[in-house]
Design a protein that fits this description.
Blueprint (H helix, E strand, L loop, with lengths): L1 E6 L13 E6 L2 E5 L5 H6 L9 E3 L5 H4 L2 H9 L8 E5 L5 H4 L11 E5 L5 E4 L2 E8 L5 E8 L2 E5 L7 H7 L4 E5 L17 H11 L3 E5 L7 H9 L5 E4 L5 E3 L2
Parallel strand pairs: 3-4, 4-5, 5-6, 10-11, 11-12, 12-13
Antiparallel strand pairs: 1-2, 1-14, 2-3, 7-8, 8-9, 9-10
Length: about 250
Amino acid sequence: MLLTILGGCGAWPGAGQACSGYLVEHDGFRLLVDPGYATVPRLLERITADQVDAVFISHGHPDHCADLNPLLRARTLRDDPPAPLPVYSLPGALDAVLALDRPGMLTDAYVLHEFTAGGSLDIGPFHARTRLLPHSVPNAGIRLTAGERVLAYTGDTCPSPDVVDLARGADLLLAEATYADRVPEDSRRHLSSARQVGRQAKEAGARHLLLTHLQPGTDATAAQAAAEAEYDGETGIATSGLTIDLS
C-alpha cells in the first residue's frame, strides 16, 4: 500500500500548499481520499484525471471535498470521457459541491455511493471500515486494509474512543491535528491537537503517526514535538509530495 500526500493544510491552503488530499494505491488501483482545496493540480502532476479509480470523502467541508469539482470537470470535458467515477460519501455531504455546475453537466462523470458510517465497504482491493467521529458536521473516519497493511484516517474529529478503535494496531494513523497543543474552547468538540493525537496513537498501538490538517501558521516542529511527548512511535508531518510505502 502506497500513500502520497497531496496536501495537508487545515481550513484553507497556505501559500504554495494544498488542503487535505491523499492518494492511496495498491495493486494498480488508485483511491483518492478527501480532494480538498488545491489538491487536483498536485494530483495531475502524478497521474491523469482518468487514472483515478475511486474517491472517498470523509465529510462535506470544502477543505476536504472542494476539488472534486475540477476533478470531475477534467474527466468529463473531453472528447473521450472515461467511465463514471465511483464517489463514496456520507448522505448529503456532497450536495453543495455537486451543485456548483449547471444541472446535468457532471451527471455522467460520477456514480455517488452514499454510505452509513459504522459499516464496511469494498473499494477496489481495499476493505474499508468506517466510523462516525465527532465533528461539527457528520464525519466518517476510515480504516483501509489491503495486502495485510492497515491505514487509518480520521478526517476531522475531536479525541474519541472511536478514533482509538479505528486505529487499533494500524501500520499508519493519518490524523487531524489542527493545533499543536491547545485547542480553542469553541473547537474542542470538533478538532484535535497534536498532543491529543499522540496520546490516542499510543493507546491504539499504531506503528506510525502522520499529523495532518495543521492550520496554516501552526508550528509544525512544535506540533511534532507535542505528539512525540505522548507517543514513542515514528511521527511525521503530512506535507505535499511525501510518499510512504506501508509494505
